[in-house]
């Protein structure tokens, strides 16, 4: 499987692609020791500011830093414009789909999506049925995972619309590059990402409930310091200038949410929640949850507080629903998808299951509700025992899995222990949807599989990150 190289193009092309010409010259003329020193400085920078993430079940989880690659990924402005249009279309359709699922249900009656995939979906919230949310927006913050396979072909790999993470790394990666390589940075005209916090704050303010003040009170709800993404929660709260709260800091009185402060109780209008649905309110969901706020759902359903993202958005994270996105986009927008899906076999369908079982060693198999690179099989890299284990899982619960071809994800130059070498990458752009429209951050988070030949870019599986540059053509 030969991958498209984003610096050199198709195999055998013999020339550097235009966006990378300046970078290639810099790589060829800069001593390797300089890269090693800068990489060490980057690691020290990230340690000093405390950028960490946790892998549950590991003793050293709280000390882990996501590896940062010092060689940026570069996209031309025209390439980005195509992606941006596709992202706007897709997130628009996702919001229309969710509003319809919890409202009129036209897409179900029209046979666009099977009813059982909605109503039996782990992400479906019956409490949201027949309820409306401000501006019919369910997905205020989306992280859409995109892969590239050749010069002109980008595909959506996953939709992350529950509590998408990673934007803090996008912002810190940019700051690190500006500090460590000012001469390289200044030689390119690079679209900025540092205004993301202002854009996010404006989005959150725009979706406040009716009757909220012109400057609504916003809080970021975190599960606490032991959560894998706690650094990002505290980072964003600081950048937004809002309070970082845990469930114990909030109280609901007469269906209104208040926050405890040194001056007493203060009403909260918008909660940017980084807690999954089932932990939000022990009176409405998991009774033993100590992370949420008793009565929060009553306040939410009464229209007295906005939760971002909305409760019940997990349906659209489901990988089986993902496979229907082309039809969903056509149904709700009347347009053909601008960004394609990866071909997907729904194992709940007997013919698809038979094909997948016969070709397991060639395919990538994923749990429909899985995330973080867990619960998946990469057939070409799997052992016979692993393939056999997944075969048993598929036969036992086929509806819990989808399968996709093993894509040759594009590669970018990466500084590794042996020097500069190509490594596979994906891209997670971040899309904001508010009352004033949709905004797409120019670039997003590039994740890189640091292990040679690996296609798994997730940080929990040994992946790292890169700064993503959108430059003028």
From TrEMBL:
Superkingdom assignment: Bacteria
Gene3D superfamilies in the cross-refs: 3.30.1490.270, 3.40.50.11290
Record domain Circularly permuted ATP-grasp type: where: 72-449
InterPro entries in the record: ATP-dep_Glu-Cys_Ligase-2, CP_ATPgrasp_2, UCP005522
Pfam families documented for this protein: CP_ATPgrasp_2 (PF14403)
Protein name, per record: Putative circularly permuted ATP-grasp superfamily protein
């Amino acid at each position: 499987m030969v991958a498209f190289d984003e610096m050199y193009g198709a195999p055998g092309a013999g020339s550097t692609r235009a966006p990378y010409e300046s970078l290639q010259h810099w790589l060829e003329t800069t001593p390797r020791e300089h890269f090693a020193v800068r990489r060490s400085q980057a690691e020290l920078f990230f340690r000093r500011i405390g950028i960490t993430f946790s892998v549950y079940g590991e003793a050293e989880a709280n000390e882990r830093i996501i590896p940062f690659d010092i060689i940026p990924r570069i996209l031309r402005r025209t390439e980005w414009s195509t992606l941006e249009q596709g992202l706007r279309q897709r997130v628009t359709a996702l919001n229309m789909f969710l509003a319809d699922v919890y409202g009129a249900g036209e897409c179900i009656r029209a046979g666009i999506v099977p009813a059982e995939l909605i109503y039996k979906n782990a992400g479906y919230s019956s409490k949201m049925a027949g309820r409306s949310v401000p501006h019919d927006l369910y997905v205020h913050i989306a992280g859409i995972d995109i892969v590239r396979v050749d010069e002109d072909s980008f595909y959506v790999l996953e939709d992350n619309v529950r509590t998408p993470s990673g934007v803090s790394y996008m912002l810190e990666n940019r700051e690190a590059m500006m500090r460590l390589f000012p001469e390289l940075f200044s030689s390119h005209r690079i679209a900025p990402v540092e205004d993301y916090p202002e854009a996010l704050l404006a989005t959150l303010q725009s979706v406040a409930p009716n009757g909220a003040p012109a400057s609504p009170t916003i809080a970021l709800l975190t599960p606490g310091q032991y959560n894998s993404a706690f650094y990002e929660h505290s980072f964003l709260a600081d950048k937004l200038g809002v309070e970082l709260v845990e469930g114990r800091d909030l109280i609901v009185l007469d269906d209104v949410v208040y926050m405890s402060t040194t001056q007493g109780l203060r009403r909260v209008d918008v909660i940017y929640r980084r807690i999954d649905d089932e932990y939000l309110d022990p009176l409405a969901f998991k009774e033993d949850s100590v992370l949420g706020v008793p009565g929060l759902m009553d306040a939410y359903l009464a229209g007295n507080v906005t939760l971002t993202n909305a409760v019940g958005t997990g349906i659209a994270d489901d990988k089986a629903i993902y496979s229907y996105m082309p039809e969903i986009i056509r149904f709700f927008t009347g347009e053909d998808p601008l960004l394609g899906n990866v071909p997907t076999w729904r194992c709940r369908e007997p013919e698809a299951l038979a094909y997948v079982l016969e070709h397991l060693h060639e395919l990538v198999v994923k749990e429909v509700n899985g995330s973080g690179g867990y619960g998946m099989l990469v057939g070409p890299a799997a052992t016979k025992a692993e393939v056999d284990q997944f075969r048993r899982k598929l036969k036992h619960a086929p509806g819990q899995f989808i399968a996709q071809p093993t894509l040759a994800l594009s590669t970018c130059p990466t500084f590794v222990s042996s020097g500069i070498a190509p490594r596979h990458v994906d891209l997670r752009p971040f899309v904001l949807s508010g009352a004033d429209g949709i905004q797409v951050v120019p670039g997003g988070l590039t994740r890189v599989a640091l292990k040679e030949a690996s296609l798994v870019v997730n940080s929990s599986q040994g992946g790292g990150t890169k700064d993503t540059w959108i430059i003028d053509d």
